[in-house]
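Follow-up to my earlier ticket, as requested here are the two runs.
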Amino acid sequence: MDTYLTIAARSEGLYKEKMSKFLSFAEPCSTVEQAKEIVTRYKKEYFDARHVCWAYMLGNERTEFRSNDDGEPSGTAGKPILGQINSFELTNLCVIVVRYFGGIKLGTSGLIEAYRTAAQEALNAAQIEERIIEETLVVHYQYPMMGEAMRIAKEEGANVLAQDFGEDCRLTLSLRRDAMPRMRARYEKTYGISIVEDDGNSN
């Protein structure tokens, strides 16, 4: 797969249970630092709330994630929030659920259901987008081979990110991940063109 799902913009949800109010928010982010900034912002904004629980998922491969119960019984808040992110198969986002305690305890199962539903409400309201995963390739060639280097890039549908027309020319290209092996193979088989850098960066 060379695509992933994420949200286009901030979204909100609301869930009420036995006098407790659960405000939920989903925001796009792409780094741990951004996720932490989002959490800090909500903690400051809702400083009077009993709990500000959260979870985030990052990366095209959905391998970087974390959740936090913020004082709720272990596993009753952060994990249900993260579970909804997984249910929607999303990444590069942070989901916050703010709880205003209503005076009636919900119990373990009640808390799990409340945080799960609140997170779901925010994600139901989100605009979900499919993004293409791209990789970057840099090829080197002598000036007379410029036409051939550009022709291959055009035929494969690559995006030209940068061009260097010095004595030794370089061409920086990006292409969706699934199509990259074929383009790389064409360059490797073309006399006078070599791959000098393949950073594997994904967008």
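Run two:
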Amino acid sequence: MAIGSFNQRRNQGPMSDMNMVPMVDVMLVLLVIFIITAPLLTHAVKVDLPKASSSVNITKPDHIQFGIRKDGSLFWNGEVVPLASLSARFVVEARKNPQPELHIRADRLAYYELVAQIMSVAAKAGITRIGFVTDPTTAQ
């Protein structure tokens, strides 16, 4: 960096050094902006889950097909069941050896609260193997 002198005899030539301070300031400001905005770009949440492209699960004959429609109607292996009788049915199934798997087929527009309630009743009765059945077609 060129520093001035009190010597008058010396010829003052043009300053040949570049001032780097403004460039460093700009780079630090850009770095702070990128540090702040980068995490905001990665936290996007889009949820439309019921479609999945996975291989077909070959199930054993001892499983329970449990269906939930969007209007709240419940189906146990194809027959309509009321919510009040589920606890007793799950207890009977939980005592079997080997314990059957519970396959939940919920409509994509069904309320999650009802699905969670069914899972809670099954877990309290002792059913430990619970799975969800999805449509294996590709997402649109």
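The only thing I checked on run two: Residues 26 and 32 are 10 Å apart (CA to CA). Let me know what else you need.
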